[in-house]
């Protein structure tokens, strides 16, 4: 597909009014699409309807511009058949990865034979960030998933310091550092068990997190770029959403090895836009497939066009489907 053959693109995301355009990756991708002449629609996940075997979305045509406070303009709502009326669906709403999110993947999976959905909804459903990463445990810090306090205490005794975090959290929410004394560990585990029905993740603490948590973006299995996210004062969390700052970075040999190991699998699963997190240049902690971020900072530091790379990869996927 080229500018002479524009696409109709439906973007399933969060409300346009609330996004922060200075660093929002979805907005960046929409700008790149619009620059190529593609027609954009916006809708929310609750706007999906299944009727008579067809997946519909009450969506609004949208134009975007890089002007803070005046960054979008909607047209009148239309009921789109996502299989017949649309070339590409971008599934880009932020987690939590809950039953609502999972239901949206099931609905979008039903249009996959007619319309390209990015990322592949079945693969998103089957690759939650803190579980899919376990396929690459050889690159991870020591990790445990449990609800058992005795197991957590044993793990702490073995590793000295640990990090406890919810299995389906996002943006650094509810990530706790526990020192060797284990102060309030029992109360923390009680809180996690009361707040979530699923197990939680426990990892050995990596002191190198003080130097940053590197976000590496892969587009269709290939490295697009990286940015180092540095924690704020008094923090171990480096997520930009909780006060971390971005810095230019280069990849280590170990990080390239990690990317090379997972790249073919990401491509095979239809996970076209993925962000992985690596601490200390060597420790893989997460593989983000739901709504990865970081491309605005990467492009600012490196002079790249990751949004354009994503659309090039989408064009290649569409060409493959047309030729099949």
UniProtKB/TrEMBL annotation:
Keyword NADP assigned: no
Annotated ATP-grasp domain residues: 130-315
Keywords of this entry: ATP-binding, Glutathione biosynthesis, Ligase, Magnesium, Manganese, Metal-binding, Nucleotide-binding
Top-level class of the enzyme under EC nomenclature: ligase
Keyword Ligase: yes
Source domain of life: Bacteria
Cofactor names: Mg(2+); Mn(2+)
Functional pathway: Sulfur metabolism; glutathione biosynthesis; glutathione from L-cysteine and L-glutamate: step 2/2
Protein EC: 6.3.2.3
Database matches in Pfam families: GSH-S_ATP (PF02955), GSH-S_N (PF02951)
Reaction equations catalysed: gamma-L-glutamyl-L-cysteine + glycine + ATP = glutathione + ADP + phosphate + H(+)
Gene Ontology molecular function: glutathione synthase activity
InterPro entries noted in UniProt: ATP-grasp, ATP_grasp_subdomain_1, Glut_synth_pro, GSHS_ATP-bd, GSHS_N, PreATP-grasp_dom_sf
Stated family: Belongs to the prokaryotic GSH synthase family.
NCBIfam families to which the protein is assigned, alphabetical: glut_syn, PRK05246.1
PANTHER family recorded: GLUTATHIONE SYNTHETASE (PTHR21621:SF4), RIBOSOMAL PROTEIN S6 MODIFICATION PROTEIN (PTHR21621)
Name of the protein described by the UniProt record: Glutathione synthetase
Annotated organism of origin: Sphingobium cyanobacteriorum
Gene transcribed to yield this protein: gshB
